[in-house]
Design brief:
Length: 205
């Protein structure tokens, strides 16, 4: 099942692409930081808009909670500003699903990463998709903005849901708190038409 992390503060662009595909939309609440909350010192400089980062984090948690209410063993989580850039994106996702026997989570989209930090292998033996699986040379020590679209196992989702936001953004949590891999090139674009709550001023509620 596909779970969409969405906010009613902007159009959910991806829903047009999912019009004929089963999915659930998880509308993120206007979560607020607890009074006196402070990011851990090591993470305080990672994002400027902590309210937006919290809402992104909690939005992913809410989607994962919905997944855990199902009987499915894995989920495809997508943010509302993901947009498929190839008609075979569902094939890429299906092939990627097989990697969850080896990895906790596999991102279908990555930005701001260095290829030299990864080992690469073909996604499928016949290279029909012309995609590679990138595996960090040092698990837990990589930098990928990769929470736009990812597949995740039930046990990994359970760990995320049990955790709490401490200033470490969703993108980095995904790639460093799980045994992680990345599909490249991505079958999705990050449609920035309406910006993102994590990197623009949060509207007054």
């Amino acid at each position: 099942m596909i779970y969409v992390v969405a906010t009613k503060k902007r159009p959910a662009i991806v829903l047009e692409a999912l019009a004929t595909i089963p999915h659930e939309v998880c509308w993120t609440s206007d979560y607020k930081l607890p009074e006196g909350w402070k990011a851990l010192d090591a993470y305080g400089s990672l994002v400027q808009n902590q309210v937006g980062a919290l809402r992104c984090w909690r939005g992913h948690q809410d989607a994962l909670k919905r997944f855990l209410e199902s009987k499915n063993d894995a989920a495809l989580v997508m943010e509302d500003d993901a947009w498929p850039n190839t008609p075979v994106w569902t094939t890429v996702a299906a092939l990627t699903m097989q990697l969850l026997d080896e990895f906790d989570a596999v991102s279908l989209h990555g930005r701001a990463f260095r290829h030299e930090d990864f080992d690469a292998r073909p996604l499928d033996p016949k290279t029909l998709t012309e995609r590679s699986v990138l595996v960090p040379k040092a698990q837990g020590q990589t930098w990928v903005q990769g929470s736009l679209a990812y597949l995740i196992r039930r046990d990994a989702a359970e760990r995320w849901v049990a955790d709490s936001y401490n200033g470490y953004p969703s993108d980095l949590y995904l790639c460093n708190r799980h045994k992680f891999a990345l599909i490249d090139p991505s079958p999705f674009d990050h449609n920035r038409t309406y910006k993102s709550l994590i990197d623009c001023p949060t509207p007054v509620d």
